[in-house]
Amino acid sequence: MTRTDMSHAVRARIEEGDANREPVDVGEAPVARRYALPRIAATIDRRVLVSYRLDPEVAQSLLPGPLRPHLVDGSAVAGFCVMRLASVRPAFFGGVRLGWRGESAAHRIAVQWNERDDAGRAVVRSGVYVPVRHSAARFPTLIGGRVFPGVQHRASFTLNETAERVQVGFTAPDVRGRIDVEAATGWSSSLFGTLEEASEFNRLGNVAWSPGRRAGSLDCLSLHTTAWEVSPARLLDAESSFFSALPEGSTEYDSSLIMRGVPMTWGTSA
To answer: What CATH number is associated with residue 228?
Structure first.
């Protein structure tokens, strides 16, 4: 199956899930704070993404303004990830292996919004809303939401990692979580029929909205890579106080993915 075929398959399921939803006025497009900074490059040394089905009404209650849940098979898609970035640097440094590295965690909800393209045509965009981010490094917490988009909060992390298994825990005053997964060969998901569908869904959600430091403001990051690749993972254990605080029965575990050694850049344009 080609990437185009995978994209069509994912979009078909999304359109089926959204068929009965009320349309949003195309004029209601989210507006992000502008940052005059160059693109940033890094390597995703390791990233584990745990995904859940989430009740659409609960998901909508967590979203600001014009964002709405991105439905698949009638459910919103949410989750949290733990990621280790390496060689974080301005993109104009090229392939120079300089820059800091650090562990981070993010909770996310897949979203859609309406806007107009450069030709004035109505389009639907896809991405994620990140209500809260955490980092083990002090530097991102200092610049996030001040000189670079994405407010980050400090957290302590515990790690136990091998080539076949990843165990990460994080603790902060406002949230705690843990992930324990091992490499898998098979794929199991009620949201996505194949690993390729799950991969394409996450690849297309490369625009991340999050709360800004000013009340009611939004920050926006867009991630780009020419080497997107994910592998299936088997969940051994996961816990997130963020999702545990939601109404009972509103979340259901779906699947886990792992990424390793993926070069990427990100910037402020949506």
So the answer is: 2.40.400.10
